[in-house]
Amino acid sequence: MEQILQFILSGLSQGGVYALVAIGFYMMWAATKAANFTHGDIFMLGAVATVSLAAAGVPLILAIPLAILISAFAGALIERFAVRPFNLGPSSIGWMLTTIAIGLMMESALTATYGPLGRPLYSPLAETPIRFGGSGIYAQELLIPAVAIAVMLCLEAFYHRTILGRAMLAVATNRTAAGLMGIDVNQISMIAYAMAAAVGALAGILLAPVAEASPSMGALIGLKAFVVAIVAGIANARGVVIVALSYGVLEKFIEGFISTGARNAIGFAVLILLLLAFPNGIFGKQGVSKV
Amino acid sequence: MSPRIQFWVILVFGLAALYLFRESGPTNYAIGVLTRCMILAIVAVGLNILIGQAGLVSLGQAALYGLGAYVAAWLALRTGMAFLPAVACGIVASGMMGAALAYPSVRVRGVYLAVITIAFGLIFQNILIEWVPVTGGTLGLTGIPRGEAFGVRLTRQIYFWVVAGSLALAFIIQYTLVYSRYGRAMRATAQSENAASALGINVANTRMFAFVVSAALAGLGGGLYTFLNLFVNYETFTFFQSISFLLMVIFGGVGTLAGPLVGAGILTYIPEFFQNFKEWQVFAYGVMLAAVMFLMPAGIVGTIAGLWTYATTRSRAREAKPWPNAAALPAGTLDQATAGKGTTVAEVDRFTIKFGGLTAVNEASLVVRAGEVHGLIGPNGAGKSSMLNLMSGFYRPTSGRMTFASQPTEGLKSHDLARRGLARTFQNTELFGDMTVLDNVLVGCHVHYRSTLVETLLRLPRFLREEREMTERARSLLELVGLTDYADELAKNLPFGHQRRLEIARALALRPRMLLLDEPAAGLTHAEIEQLKELIRILTANGIAIVLVEHHVDMVMNLSSDVTVLDYGLVIASGAPAKIQDDPKVIEAYFGNVQSIPAHAAEPVVS
Predict the structure, then answer these.
(1) Considering CB atoms only, which of B57, B119, B193 is closest to A227?
(2) Which among A54, A202, B148, B320 is most buried, taking Cβ atoms within 10 Å?
């Protein structure tokens, strides 16, 4: 029983990371029907930048917003230079390749300068684990899914209650029409990418105290989050968060009951099967193709 | 240069170059490097078909390559299977895996395949490392016996030619596939799913087929790799290798014949140069990929080919001929409409479709007869286009049924209906913009080919005969609409009015029993509308049933035997044009309440 609880809690923690990264994919996708394919590297950038700034003597309270700002800026640049010129229609694939190129560069450049090894980030919430029975969990880990849900709620409010959010929804629904209504669709897209990057970076910073920040930490998480977002239907933030949290828990159960080695193979296989059962994603709507 | 000449030039010069290379007395090392390069080229050729034709991206090609390699290695090592069957099993395994991966993803959106293939690549790595009893774990499988075929031991010297022959085979398959109805169907699905399926092409199957071909070629490469290297290890089949394959295709030139060969060559020899960058090596790859995308999106071969075309093509005057040119229509071009004039071709029985709370079409029925025009009119938003989409299988009705050519259409998709002789055009013309005008019409002929894939790949007589016949038929359809001069122009370069004509010619290539025209006169000049009316008369005279959705009410009244008027999804009137014109309900739908409008306002019913 205790063990099950442990799996669920640490699974939610892991799922929270996926959720925050996957929300970013959702936001980018909604705005442009494309995404930064290597969004996982933005997640990594957030963590690595925070650790580097902290190592340079910048107090955390400043280092964290600064790292988020840097990541958001990187996200905006990626939208402007790697996505926009290469996303010219529904069958465009150029954006995939350019963003992969940038991901490769980011990851290898940081490996060469920051070093390939992970470095921890100090957090008061990751000092003593909360014990229950034989196992325990850091408060930091529980913070992650809580933040994921909070971000989701804020995002929903943002989309429905603010002018900018509504403009973003309008762009997501019909880019051309939104443009004709005087919305600067390019600017909206750029803002969406910057916001997605900020949320992704936040996830990296939250994870760094319990998992160490390294240049290679983002690649796999980014890919998983993308698959999770697609399986969820990439249609709304709530669905993405639900699937992401469940997937995190599923992974811990696979680790616990089968083996750690089988985690990715089985986990991904489940996701592929889910996509087979729900071709439009679990929370996706059957797209009525306007003929 | 025509594709055929390109093909022969590359094949002959390529083989000659390999022969000269061997005659120059290369070291064993040099032979090994070139053999490996050719293996990578085989995989790249497969990926080129996927990206260049079907417009799909695989980011797990290295895993499919690895699957072929591991299957061949395991069979050779554990069961003592000989070279040829082991490689064949590798091909089959990768091909089947390709089908399994493509099935869930290609139905929805192309990008899903990219994501699924990445996931597969990671699963594959995971399994290679963890499933030690079969894969040998991190050590891999070692001590694979050198292959033997037909009693000849495949030494490195001989193996070079085995691989060269396989590459030539892959290259031939690429050519014969691309320049056939299969290649055209793939390009069509990449450019407009809707138009492709309206012409009888099963979009999901076509995409799946493209992916299976590319996976099978990756499997072939893998099997060959096993018997070159004689040991396999998970490190060869990483995500990074998948990116490398992608880079080969893009660098060489997506969709070009020689592109993957050039790309594989560069990517084989460039890493030796990249070694100098040490830890910045991956960075250099990233820079290279980005640089190609920004500076040379057509790739090396594509850029050169573009310059060549630019330099050698003299602009010549093209002019659209008067149309419709009924004399151009040889007997049999439209012969599927065999039913006698006036017999029922399609009968819609109370179609209803709801989008959320909105009922777009509400219990609408109509009957379409051979050789007659059935006009479908109504104010904007009345449900006319929804009705067409229901009839052509693009929408599934909430309730109601349709009989087409004496058979119920329940459960049939748009491409099934097209195969049964239901053609349509689109309100916003949906041409295959990056294909030539002639190819657009040839896609319309797709369903009438009888030659099989094998006949196509081997260029057997039946294929050659059919291709000739279809091209002739397509040309006569172009003559019918007066576009013969534009046959080799890209469809997207045509002026709007000509695009409308081309779309009709393409629909006619299907040899339809029934043709649904969705606002064909929208945006046409007055003269063009008169010509269009003339064309419609020719078609009905040939026995085709036509459903005409139009806002030019006088045109509809002029041509139609029957008219159905929709308003808010309901049929408010139907019958002969004369009866409809005087129907108070129709006048009200168009002009509001009759009492409040002077009587003469109802006269010029032209939009």
Answers:
(1) B119
(2) A202
Look up residue B134 and give its two tokens: 């079969």
Asked if A221 is an interface residue toward chain B (Cβ–Cβ < 8 A), one would say: no
Cα separations in angstroms, B531 against B85, B151, B217, B592: 62, 70, 50, 33
Architecture of domain A2-277: Orthogonal Bundle (1.10)
Is residue B219's pLDDT more than 90? yes
ipTM metric: 0.83
Q: Where in chain B is the domain with CATH 3.40.50.300?
A: 326-602
> To 10 degrees, what angle do helices B28-48 and B3-23 make?
160
What mean pLDDT comes out for the span B161-177? 93
Chain A CB within 8 Å of residue B99 CB: no
- CATH superfamily of domain region B326-602: P-loop containing nucleotide triphosphate hydrolases (3.40.50.300)
pLDDT given at position A119: 87
Q: Is the pLDDT confidence value at B185 over 80?
A: yes
Shortest alpha-carbon distance between residue A211 and chain B (Å):
21
Cβ distance of A100 and B190 shorter than 8 Å: no
* Section B282-300 average pLDDT: 85
If you measure CA to CA, which chain B residue comes closest to A92? B55
Question: pLDDT tens, B447-456?
Answer: 988 888 989 8
SS (H, E, C) B318-352: CCCCCCCCHHHCCCCCCCCCCCCCCCEEEEEEEEE
Instruction: Please state, in angstroms and rounded to a whole number, the distance separating the CA atoms of residues A2 and A20.
Output: 27
Mean pLDDT along residues B580-605: 66
Instruction: Give the Cα separation of A242 and B574 in Å (integer).
Output: 51
| Distance (Å, whole) CA A91 – CA B190 | 7
